Amino acid sequence: MHRTANRNLALRRTLAAALAAALAWTLFQITATPAQAQAVNVARSATPSASYTSSWETTAAVNDGIEPPGSNDTVNPRWGTWPQTGTQWVQLTWAGPVTVSASDLYFFDDSFNSGPGGVRLPSSWRIEYLNNGSWTPVTGASGYGVNANAYNHTDFTAVTTTALRAVLQSGTASVGVLEWKVWGQGSAAQSGNPIIRDIYTADPATLVVGDTAYLFTGRDEAAAGQQAFVMDEWHAYSSTAPANSRSAWTAHGARLSLDVFDWAGANAWASEVEQGPDGRYYWFVSVDGSTDNGWMNIGVAVADHPLGPYEDAIGGPLISDSTPNSSALNIDPTVFRAADGRIYLYWGSYWQPRMVRLNQDMTSLASAVTTPQGLTDFWEAPWMFERNGTYYMAYASNAGADCVTGSAYACIRYATATDPAGPWTHRGVVLGQVTSTTNHPAIMQFDGQWWMVYHTADAPGGGNFRRSVAMDRLYFNADGTIQKVVQTRGAA
Ligand code: FUB
């Protein structure tokens, strides 16, 4: 018993160190984004290409949304032309016309920190746009800076086009770009994402009741530049015509807060609402409790209506560090009621998914806690649903080249099973890395359409601790596998 406690303590310390490292890496990645009043960064919805790309670099780097930590970024994807020199270009192509009038371009220069220096700043560069089939320099350019370790901002006379090029003339070596933001409006791949912009929201959960879709989120209240989660309450939204548009959703404000749980102190993290067999609505939440020496717990609130008012359903945690075989971090509940009446709770983080069955009261455990099998590279944030007799588990993962550019980020993988208890078969990545380090899925079907709801750092002033909920269509293949979600963003 004592040895187990010591082992748990050691594990917790190791995991805490891993979290600290992840957060430190997050800090390293964050730099300020220039304020852009109405325009959005339409580069994110473009397809990149280039005159030449070194085989170990990628054009995807230029519009992946990753803020460069410096011009010699040895961690994130980069576009570079080594050993090619002379005139080189990188291009953004849109599916439909965009109207653009400014750009911020961050050069790749690997000479810093004693790097090899094969890729250096260009001697000069210019922006060209596709004009009736011809590449034409933009006019009225405010300047073409060639600074390292910073964005080089250019305003120019607005053009409507489907493609833009940064044409770089090499200087002392080959050339490259780490990130290119293009400010404007339009493009076929644009949407109203993020769908909530008056406050920062994270960790979406959906629930469809009759003709209404409900969206429940956490609220990020970190001040600008604050590098920590500040989360005290959960918000609710509803829509009778859900879409990736701000106007589709009605805000209902904070419908649950830490105050409801006398035993909880902080961290209103990820949650999910599920209707119980009694017809009432149970809001399962991640919170930092104060009833034991542990950290996060799962609590439950209950109400007669999805929008509340909610009250604590138990008076203490449903799952805590005292629960035998609980996860190293007891957060991110997803609850699933199977057709045979059984109720399953999955949760977990720090690579430790857990599953337990719930009693019909939704507030007590009906089985021992088990470790689900087959959730390959699970990190956290499970979301369970069923379609055509197949059970699906989407979850955040921070491992694998098909998933993330660095382990501080996460993609969403998914697995399927023929039984709600598993075993699960990993099927791949359904949502790629997003602009925030954390990634968190909710999946819903409404009116025959499937949606992936998630969060990003894309709202103005956003960041890893100031996230915003977004949603995009989810498509199934005939064999039940899921196509990778196309992330859209914009100002629609
Ligand atoms: O929002 C706090 C935590 O970040 C959530 O519980 C995780 O899923 C991650 O999104």
Automatic annotation (TrEMBL):
List this protein's GO terms for biological process. xylan catabolic process
- One example GO MF annotation: hydrolase activity, hydrolyzing O-glycosyl compounds
Q: Where is this site: Important for catalytic activity, responsible for pKa modulation of the active site Glu and correct orientation of both the proton donor and substrate?
A: D332
Report the leader peptide range. 1-37
Task: Extract the InterPro entries matched here.
Answer: Glyco_hydro_43, Glyco_hydro_beta-prop_sf, Glycosyl_Hydrlase_43_Enz, TAT_signal
Lineage top rank: taxon: Bacteria
Keyword Phosphoprotein in the entry? The reply is: no
Q: Which Pfam families match?
A: Glyco_hydro_43 (PF04616)
Keyword tags: Carbohydrate metabolism, Glycosidase, Hydrolase, Polysaccharide degradation, Signal, Xylan degradation
Q: Which family does it belong to?
A: Belongs to the glycosyl hydrolase 43 family.
PANTHER family, sorted: ENDO-1,4-BETA-XYLANASE, PUTATIVE (AFU_ORTHOLOGUE AFUA_2G04480)-RELATED
Q: Report what the protein is called.
A: Family 43 glycosylhydrolase
